[in-house]
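May I ask for an example protein's residues together with how it folds?

___
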Amino acid sequence: MVDFVQAVAEGKRSFKRLTMEEADLRELDLAELTLKGCTFTKCDFHRAQLFRWHCEDCSFIECRFNDADMSESTFLRCTFYALDRPSSFVASDLRHSKWQECDVRLCSFEKAQLFKGEWQQVNATGANFFKADFRRAFTMQQCIMRLADLRDANLRKCDLSKTDFEQADLRESQLQEANLTTCNFAGANLVHTQVQGADLRGANIASFNVQQMDMQGVKIYETQGKSLLQAIGIELFEANPTE
């Protein structure tokens, strides 16, 4: 750890295949680093300055990023999870960060700032986003959010297309005017979820309770509408032009 910290202090900004375990990196200024193929296990980055990191093919196993400044960082093909050993981002600053093909299963993003974040093909199965700040400006495309905790999430007008929300907890979340095309909501908890004006074309909305949800202005295909009506017991018949 001393060599790594010293190297950063001396101005080195790029590291390859670095391995660190149980390192105490709390409150250090480690900003604007490029990391490729590095592995960090049980490292503590609490309150560290990590903004503008660029990480490729790195592993962060059971690391603590709570209250860290990770804004404007980019993570490509990075893993933040091993078997029952997720990392934690509680109250971290992730504004304007970009994540692509990353694994953040079971990680906690509780109270994290995700404003203007961009996630592409991220596996966030079972992750906790309770009280995370999306501030209606977040992009999440082709991601896996199964069993994720998204209670009270403000994702209004966000692009969440092609994301899998199977069995996710979306209670009281705000999805008004969001792009939800081809999303999967099978088994999701949608109590008091707001979807007015959302684009739901091609989405799996079989679990939507249209008798309790306000779906004013939503966009769906005709076949989806028929399925929703049939689910509440309405029988549909073709009009007979001869009558």
Q: What stands out?
A: The longest strand covers residues 117-120. Helices lie at 2-9, 222-231. Residues 57 and 111 are 26 Å apart (CA to CA).
